[in-house]
Design goal:
This protein is an alpha+beta fold and about 150 residues long. The protein has one domain: Alpha-Beta Complex (Nucleoside Triphosphate Pyrophosphohydrolase). The chain contains 2 helices and 7 strands; from the N terminus they run E-E-E-E-H-E-E-E-H. Strands 1, 2, 3, 4, 5, 6 and 7 form a 7-stranded mixed beta sheet that branches.
């Protein structure tokens, strides 16, 4: 007979999908209005999105945060997996990072963010904007994709 497993021993985690949006050597970075921390477009997956195509969730987040006019191409291959804690509530999350190519359109950030800017991946110092887990994720990205 197999052992019964107590589900309380297993962790429950939220999924955060982040878009590393590139325009040539430039990466789009943002600052979260509430926390004042650096951020990337994307966010937590809603429960009803879990059993659907996960890219729909990422597309929804990009549209919500950057406006309806922006056109991007999402590479469906996950390029980064990292741990994270949501600032509000301190919930554990898994970050899934995707390479996204900016195609066109005016960026109109939502009220979730204070500002955005394009930074050169070859010279950007992420510790000036990011901290903790997001800093680690951006540093990993830059180590792999800034050349």
């Amino acid at each position: 007979m197999g052992e019964e497993t107590d589900l309380s021993e297993h962790g429950f985690f939220q999924i955060t999908q982040k878009a590393f949006i590139r325009n040539g050597n430039n990466l789009l970075v943002m600052k979260d209005r509430k926390s004042g921390e650096g951020d990337l477009p994307g966010g937590r997956m809603n429960e009803d999105e879990f059993y659907n195509d996960w890219l729909w969730s990422l597309k929804r987040e990009i549209s919500e945060e950057l406006g309806q006019e922006i056109k991007v191409e999402i590479n469906p291959e996950i390029i980064l997996i990292h741990k994270h804690r949501v600032n509000l509530g301190n919930h554990p999350c898994v970050i899934l990072g995707y390479h996204v190519e900016y195609l066109s359109g005016e960026i109109q950030i939502s009220d979730e963010h204070d500002f955005f800017k394009w930074v050169d991946v070859r010279t950007f110092q992420p510790e000036e904007l990011f901290s903790e887990y997001m800093l680690e994720a951006v540093q990993l990205y830059l180590q792999r994709f800034s050349k």
